[in-house]
Amino acid sequence: MKTFSVDEKKCVACGACLSYSDYFVEDSTGKAKSNLGSNILEQDLIIAEEISSLCPTNAISIVEVKSNGSIDNILKDLKSELLDCLITYKESSTFTYDRNKYQLAYPESPNFYGSDYKYSSDSKAVNAGLEEFDRYVYSRYRKIILELFVQYKLDKIYPYYDFSEESFIGKRLDKIRSILNKYSGLINANLNNRVIPIDFDSFNLDFENDDFKMRLKDVSEFERFSTSSGVWADFQSGSYSSLSSYKSYIDTDDFEEYIGSGLFGDKYKTRYCHRSLKEVVAEFYSDIQLSMSSVDLDEKAAMYVNLFIRSFNYLLLDMFVNKFIEIERLTNKKYKVFDEIKPIIDNNYTKEKYLESTIGEIDKYLY
C-alpha cells in the first residue's frame, strides 16, 4: 500500500501537482500536502510515478504505508479510534474554586481614596466612609458575586464548550477528521477502488438537538446560578458579616483648623475625614471570596459540564454510526463490527448505555 509524501521544505507552492491529481490538497500556506485519505490505487501507480517526477523541486516521493490487513480489521481499527475520541467525564477537583485567582476591581466612588476634612467628629467621618462603602460595594454584592461567577466560568468551564479551532473540542474534531481521512484511504486501497469519496472526512453535528441546546445553555450561562448558589447566605452566616461590622476597617484622620483669634487667644476647630476605603473593601472582597470557595461550586460545575459532555458525546456517536452506515452503503456490504453500535442511533437511552461501556457511568460525577 503506497501514498505520496511531500517535503514541506522543498515545496515552492507551484501548484503543478494540485492541477494533476486529487491525491494532493493545498494547505494554509498554499503549499501542497498529501491527502492522507488517498492511498495510491494499483491502477494509478504509473501516473503516481509521473506526478512525482514532474515536481520541479523533487519535493514529492512515494512511500509505503503499513497495511491493516483485512477490511474487517481496518473497520475494527476505525471504530476503535473514533470511540477513543469520545470525551471522558471530569472529576469535581478539575473545577476547584481558587479564591486567590479571581480579582475584583476597586469601586469608582467619589471618596474612595479619602474624603475632605469636613466632618465635625470622628464618628461622623466613620459613618460617612461606611455609607460610601455600602453605596458602592456592600449593597452591590449581587453584582460582585456575578462578576466572580463569570471569571470562574471563563477559567474553568468555558474550555469545555469552546468550539474555536485551537480549543479542546476544536482539536478533538480535527482529530476525528484526520481519522476519517486516513481510513477512507485505507479502505479504498484495500478494496483497490475509490468507493469512499475524498470528502468522507466532512461531517456536521446536530447542534440543534434539544438536549444539546439545553446542556449548552447550562454551561454557557453558568453565572445565572449566582443568585441561587448560596454564596450570600454563606456570607451572612458569618459572625461579622453585617454592614456595621466593617466599621473597624475605616480609618480616619483629623487636623486643627485655625478659625481666628479671640479674647483668650487663637481659636481652632478639629476637622475629621475618612481615609482610603481600600482596606474595608479588600476585607469585604476577601470575605466574599471565602464564601465563594465554601459553597461547593466545583460540584455544581462538574455536574453541568459532565451533562454537557454526555450530550456532546451523543452527537459524536450519532455521527460515527452514520459514517459506519455510509461505509456499508458505499461498499454495498454489511460488517459485523458495526452491528453492536448501529442500533444506538437517535436514542439517548441506548447511547447512554453504550457510553457506560466505553467511558464509564456518569452518575458518580453528578453531585
Q: Determine Rg (CA atoms, Å).
A: 33 Å
State the order of secondary-structure elements, H for helix, E for strand.
Answer: EHEEHEHHHHHHEEHHH
Terminal CA distance reads: 51 Å
Class based on secondary structure composition and strand pairing = mainly alpha
Shape from CA axes? Answer: elongated
Q: What's the number of structural domains?
A: 2
The overall strand count is 6
- State the helicity in percent bands: 40-55%
Strand order of the largest sheet: 1-4
Report the β-strand fraction as a percent range.
5-15%
List the helices and strands and how they pair.
Elements: E1 2-6, H1 16-20, E2 24-26, E3 32-34, H2 45-54, E4 60-64, H3 71-83, H4 122-136, H5 141-157, H6 168-191, H7 210-220, H8 231-236, E5 252-262, E6 265-274, H9 278-292, H10 297-331, H11 348-358
Antiparallel strand pairs: 1-4, 2-3, 5-6
